[in-house]
């Protein structure tokens, strides 16, 4: 007997977008951190 598993492509989209947004936010903070603080107050 064949087993067929139905995969909903929209099931994981929310998690994927959350991971993408989290990665981009962390990347911005990393670039700021590595760039140093060159502001003169």
Net shape: rod-shaped
CA radius of gyration = 20 Å
Strand tally: 0
Largest sheet: none
Mean pLDDT: 82
What quaternary form is this?
Answer: single chain
Beta content comes to under 5%
Give start-end ranges of low-pLDDT stretches.
none
- Alpha-carbon distance between the two ends: 73 Å
Q: Which sequence of SSEs, written as H and E, runs from N to C?
A: H
| DSSP helix fraction | 55-70%
Description:
Helices cover 56% and strands 0% of the residues. The protein contains 1 helix and no strands. The termini are far apart.
Summarize the structure.
With 41 residues, the chain is an all-alpha fold.
Search tags:
41 residues, mainly alpha, 0% strand
SSE diagram, text form:
Layout: H1 13-35
């Amino acid at each position: 007997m064949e087993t067929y598993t139905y995969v909903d492509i929209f099931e994981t989209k929310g998690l994927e977008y959350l991971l993408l947004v989290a990665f981009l936010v962390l990347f911005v903070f990393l670039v700021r951190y590595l760039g140093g603080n060159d502001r003169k107050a």
